[in-house]
Amino acid sequence: MKLRFNPLLLAALVCLGQSPAMAQTDSSSKPLRIVVPFAAGGAQDVIARYLGNKLSAKTGTPVIVDNKAGAGGIVAADFVAKAGDGATVLMATGGAITVAPQLQAKLPFDPRRDLVPVALIADTPMTVAVRSDSPYKTLPELLRAAKAKPGELSYASTGNGTVSHLAGALLGQATGVSLLHVPYRGAAPALTDLMAGQVTMIITSAASIDPMAQSGKARVLGTFSKAHLPSLGNPPTVSEATQLAGLEVPIWVGVMAPSRMPAEQQKKLSAALVEVCQLPETKEHFAQLGAVSACGASAEMEKVLAEDSERWAKVVKLGGIKID
Question: What mean pLDDT value characterizes the chain?
């Protein structure tokens, strides 16, 4: 899932003073390579370049951002998993790490064996939204209509097997309603058809729906988050709206390294990334992307990965979900 890009961020990168936690992340002078699983210009790319500038300014070690798009992040994850230079890491998201293993019997790498979590960086939760002229003003109203018309109310997703798709399946399973899934190739065409009235609702990230919500073209009925999102008008969380627990769906972004990277090097890089993540200016930059800084070291990220994997394994099994 891609986040919304704000080109102003690229001009806002500044250098900070030296601090203990930001000591050299690698004893060698070899550049650190951050591999991004999406094309240049998207928010994961902007986040990676932001982190790279901060780390480089602190350590004096060059940081290279390498974009390797393809197969929902699998191409990039496989490249990093097999990297043997000790200086290549992945700007990871759930698609290749916690979702793909539930949907594909064979992957070219093992996310649990070949990669290790280094730091949790950001989150942009999923949302349920309708057009502003939709007759459904609240999520309970929409779900009541869906229960009365099984399989007739449709939701657009950003693609088969994406977190957007699985979040819709989770909502249907948890509330006992049958929703018609309509997959698209990304958020842009899905939003176009939502505005054209081709689908009843869309399930997409806060970053993707934010421009439509800000312009008054869409209304967010609920967020798959623990906290309210003021930027979207403080809609209720999906758990609040449904009175059901366990409906938080983070779209996490973190850094992972090949398991062969030395433990001490992982630890230093983790401390450096967490410190950058906790800077007030980092939170401001992420907010402009529709993201929330979710700073955490390897243990915190490991917890998120475990929860995410368990969540999607259950959803896929219960829904009998398969991808082409």
Answer: 88
Domains contained in the chain, CATH given: 7-123+251-316 (3.40.190.150), 126-249 (3.40.190.10)
101's tokens = 């293993």
Q: Is residue 289 helix, strand or coil?
A: coil
- Model pLDDT, residue 145: 97
Helix (H, G, I), strand (E, B) or coil at 67: strand
Strand partners, 63: 32
How many residues does the structure list for the chain?
324
In this structure, the number of other CB atoms found within 10 A of the CB of residue 28 comes to: 11
Alpha helix segments (H runs only) across 225-262: 238-242
Return the amino acid letter for 152: E
Q: How do residues 112-159 score in pLDDT, each as one tens digit?
A: 999 999 999 998 889 999 999 999 999 999 999 999 999 999 999 988
Q: Starting at the earlier edge strand, list the strands of the sheet with 218-223.
A: 180-183, 154-157, 201-205, 126-131, 218-223
For 76, the token pair is: 């990039």
How far, in Å, CA of 313 to CA of 102, rounded? Answer: 6
Q: What is the pLDDT of residue 324?
A: 66
